[in-house]
């Protein structure tokens, strides 16, 4: 079973920390949707199966789409694919878009899950991040969605901001867990190169991220999640009653997926492909193609070597509750893994059950470093 990701590259304004591909100029939105639909048809043979278990609208801000645009995209998908009756169909949305009227329109579509970019329930944090909504909208939109019948909800929160004290982070979590959502994604504020936040910190206009404070807030996150019955099934993701994110879990488990739209990535099981992150080029090239193949001029690709596959399996697997299974590795990689993992087992940063290895609670904060230690480097052998 496979999934489709649809990238909608438009936003009302630029968040200071964001390095995803988007534009705040929306005069090409109609053309973009038309070309996204065209790409769906042109790439109908990319996935190994036409049976879909998830559809995910990401961005950018997909909640900026009109009802007609969403329905037209769904028509193309359902024309080609056999969408499972229980498929998870997610739309990312910003709180300022989720008025009762907008939510009522979304209920008319196959969308059955909303991923709401709350980030914080405090205006000081939202102003620092340059978010378009305020704290009241952050709270009200969740109630609106639940009242309209969207019971499968997830929200995003960000910790580690210089504006977020430990007390304020605790209050963010208290509010989040009290809303009735069944899934939470919580991310440490990361300063990405070439973002506005990176520039502000380098020029002294904003304080840098305090890693010690971020670590304390991560610990508080884990504690409060457990208290409220949320399982940490991935480093940054917490769910109640097995409400795991189906689409994102497929990424972590290496399942095939098709990415549609500028900057979107695809994986067919052996190769990775990504469309160039340029709206004008994407629209122009697709408008001018009359043949039945997706134009090679607007995407790049790489063949996944056994070493890359192993390293990615370790990196993503260790982030999840399921860990990694050495029975799934070839002898070359298994021997390397078993040698390097010993120090992390001894330090009680990892656990082992049969042939499966994962991170302990103490190891989760060090996930990236531990995974890096376990990577296979060709030059070492």
> In terms of per-residue confidence, which ranges show pLDDT below 50 for 5 or more consecutive residues?
none
Proportion in helices = 25-40%
Morphology call: globular
What's the β-strand tally?
A: 15
The count of helical stretches stands at 15
Named at the architecture level, the CATH assignment of the largest domain is Alpha-Beta Horseshoe
CATH hierarchy class name of the largest domain: Alpha Beta
Strand-pairing-aware structural class: alpha/beta
| Nearest-integer average pLDDT | 96
Helix and strand string, N-terminal first?
Answer: EHEHEHEHHEHEHHEEHEEEHEHEHHEEHH
Biggest sheet details: 9 strands, mixed
Q: How many individual domains?
A: 2
Strand content is: 15-25%
**What fold name stands as the CATH topology of the largest domain?**
pyruvate-formate lyase- activating enzyme
The order of strands across the largest sheet is 7-8-6-5-4-3-2-1-9
